[in-house]
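Example complex used in Figure S2.
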Amino acid sequence: MTDQDAMLRTEDLHKQFGSKVVLDGVSLAVAKGESLVIVGPSGCGKSVLLKHLIGLVQPDSGKVFVDGSDFWKESGVGRNTLRKKFGMSFQEGALFDSMSVAENVAFPLRRSKRSPADVRARVEECLRIVRLPDVGKKRPSELSGGMRRRVGFARAIAHQPEVLLFDEPNTGLDPIMTDIIDEVILELRERLKATIVTITHHMPSARKIGDRVALLFGGHIVYDSSPEEFLHAKDPSVRQFVEGRADGPLTADFERGTSRLTEAT
Amino acid sequence: MRLLEAIGRVVLRFLEELGRFFEMLGRFGMWAVRPPYDPGELLRQMVRVGVDSVPVCFLTTLFTGMVMALQTFHGFQRFHAESFVGSVVALSLTRELSPVLTAFMVTGRVGSAIAAELGTMRVTEQIDAMTALATEPVQYLVVPRVAASVLMMPPLVVMGDAVGMFGGYLVAVLLLGANPVSYVENSFQYLEVGDDIVHGLIKAAAFGLVFSLIACVRGYYTEGGAEGVGRSTTRAVVAGSLSILLVDFFLTKLLN
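Predicted assembly (521 residues):
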C-alpha cells in the first residue's frame, strides 16, 4: 500500500498524560475500505489512539493524515470538514442525554440538506439496522447499557460516513448481541465500503470483522497481521493475548509503560 | 522546600485556570459571531437563566431593600437624617446591592448547573461525541449559555432595583411611619439613570459574562468521573462568586 491509498495514516505518534507515556511512536496506515482491528490489554492506550485518528486528542508529536490531509495543519473549519467523513461509536454510547433517542440519531443530519421527513426515515432506518426499531421517543436514561451502545452505533452511521471508528462495540454485550453487532459492522463494510477501525478485546469478533489485526502494547504496535496469521503467530505477546494468560510479556513490565518487545514490521 | 513546592503548585494551577478562562473568552467571541446560529437554544437558555431565576432574585432583593431601610433608618435616626433613608436605599441598591446579590444568586443557581451539566457531558464523552460529529462544543454549548447569562442579568437587576426599592418603601412607610409621598420623592431625589442605574446594569452584564464563563470552563475541563463533576460544580460557584467581587471593585473604580 502506498501512502496515497491510505484513508488513515499516523506517523510516529507520541502522547503523554502527565508522566504516563501512552503512545510512544505509533505509525499505522489503514487503506480505503479496509477493516482494521486494534487489540491490546486494558489501559494500553487503544482508545487514545482511536481518538487521535479523528482528532479528539492532539498528539504531542507526530502526524495524523486523513484521506491525505495533514489533520493538525488544517484550520478549525478544515478539521471539522475532515471529521464529517467519520462516524464514531463510544464505549458507553456517549448519547446526549438532553435529547431523545431519535434526536440523538438525527444529530449528525441536522445541518445537512435533508428534509425533515427524510431525516425521520433515515433515523428509523438506522435504528432498524441496530435492531432497535421502537425506541425513538425514549430518553437515553431509560435504555439499558447495551441499548445505549447500539443507539450510539446508529448515530455514528446516520450520515453515511466513509470512516467508522468503533470503541469496544461489543464489550459487555451478550453473545447474541455481540454477533449482531459484528454482522452490522460487516454489512456496513459491504454496503458503504467504509474504512473501519475497531477496538475490541474479543478475539472471535476481531477474526470475523478484521482484514488486519494489530496488537497495541507499551505505546507501540507490537504485531500487525491478518487475523489468521495473528491467531497462529509465534510472537510471545500475541500468544499471551490470544490465549488469555495472566503471565507473559504483556504483564511482565506493567509499571514501566514501555516495552522491550521488538516492533513488528 | 515542600512549602515552596506547594505554593508553586497553587500559583501554577491559578495561572492555568486564568489562561483557560481567557482562551474560552476568545473562543466564545469567535464562535458567537459565526453562523450557524441557534436562536432556539439561546431562548431556552435565556428562560433557564432569566425567567427561572425571577423568584429567588425577587425575594433576595426584596429582603435586601427591607433590611437596608431598617438599618439606615436606625442609624440615621441618631443624627436626625431619617429623610435620607429613601436616597440611601435607592443608591446602594441600584449601584451595588442589586447587581452583586442578583449575580450571587444566579451563580449559585445557574453557574452550578452549567458546570455540572458540562462536566457530566465531559466525563461521559458526550463532548467528545459532539466534536466527533463535527459540531464545535464551544459553539453549541458555551455560546448560548454565556450569551443568555450576559443578556438576562441586566433585566434581572432592573427587577431587583424596583423590588428592592419597593421593599424599602414598605418597611419605611408601614413599619417606621415615614410619610409615603416624601419617601418616594426622597428615593428618586438623587437617583440618576445614567450614573446609577446604567452603571448597575453594566456591572450586571459583566458579572453574567464572568460567572457563566467560569462555570463553562470548569465544566468543560472536568476530569475524574462523578467526583470530578462535584469538584467542578463547587469550584464554579466559589470562583464565580469571588470573581464577581473582584470585578465589582475594578468596575466600580473604572466607572466612577
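The CA atoms of residues 158 and 201 of chain B lie 8 Å apart. Chain B has a mean pLDDT of 92.
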